[in-house]
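Title: Prediction job returns without error message
Component: structure pipeline
Severity: low
Priority: P3
Assignee: unassigned

Description:
Job completed but the reporter wants confirmation the result is attached to the right record. Sequence as submitted:
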Amino acid sequence: MYTRTTGIWQTVWIECVDECHIKNIRTVTDIETPAVNFTLKTENGIGAEILAVVTYEGKEAGRGSVKSTGDVATLNINLSEKHLWELGEGRLYDVSFTVTKDGKTTDEVKSYFGLRSVALSGKKFLLNGKSVFGRWVLDQGFYPDGIYTAPTDEALKNDIIYGLQLGFNGARLHEKMFEERFLYWADRLGYMVWGEHANWGLDITEMEAIDNFLPEWMETLERDFSHPSIIGWCPFNETWDRKGRKQCDSVIRMVYEVTKAIDPTRPCIDTSGNFHVVTDIFDVHDYWQNPKEFAEFYKDGKLNCQVQRNPAQKFRQTYDGVLPAFISEYGGARWSGKDSSSWGYGNAPKTEEEFIERYKGLTEAILGSEHIMGFCYTQLYDVEQEVNGLMTYDRKFKFDPEIFKKINMQKAAIED
């Protein structure tokens, strides 16, 4: 429904390396010890010595070395200083790796990591052991000139800063696998994000749908595993039935199971919105525009979502009341001021005051529930024909961002 994008659209670089080099680094941290564990994949690394030196703001915080006996080496380093990655505070450690083989340095790699943990406890989402409410916003990564491609590195950074200025603490990275430079800035700025696959209308009513999807998804998991800003995975979005055929639940289940096998450290939502098969978090999309009715739907932890209110879909998924609950798309009211024919959810507010009151009512209904661990507002900025952003497509605020920051930053009932 947006301009089609094809070809190379993310940053590409070519780098000369020795035959003996590091191919990939997977990082897992332990906030209690504190410690960091590296899994290092190498090429022609048998017999090589790998030295890792960790620093924090230029001061050494740990070091260790390992001799590789195969293509994978594991290295655990206790840290002398504890600086947690938190919301709005990236506090990143730097690490340098030096590979030596047959008395010669064959590779040098500089990287970083964030010391943090994520977990689910009952209906709560925990960051570093504390209940944190996810104030996410939908970010589709579109730009007026480059479509999927940002014009500059600064533009990637600014989209995060805009979200923070509006009172969001993270984003659902929607419609594409985002560029790693965006994830770098999310890491550095302390911005929680969901890693997702592209959503282009894949027909998953047959098992064959997995053929192209799963290999690409596995590449994404490997590439982005070590980013501390990624706090969860969501491979699918709104897997509707198609032409009288139900979604193939085995596709959803298999992708979920593979995701958890590759990364057991993060929660995974099998398919955002519908139709859930096996998931760590039960999320729903609900664009109901009446705040009072919306609040009624979600009181007492009931998830009477839009799908369940539709008689044709009523029994396709049910909420057991046990899993953490997430309103992962809501709002979406259009506000343009220029083109009334542009698209948004529901009836457009007639005045700025009506828009703000609607936003306030819908958001406070979610914040006030002790059963809901997060929301995701649709959306950060307009995208082409969609004018339901809090910013225009060229990143101009439609309203004073402090208004929304004040609403969003109210203490949620579920958070510590």
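Comment from assignee: result matches the submitted record. The mean pLDDT is 94.
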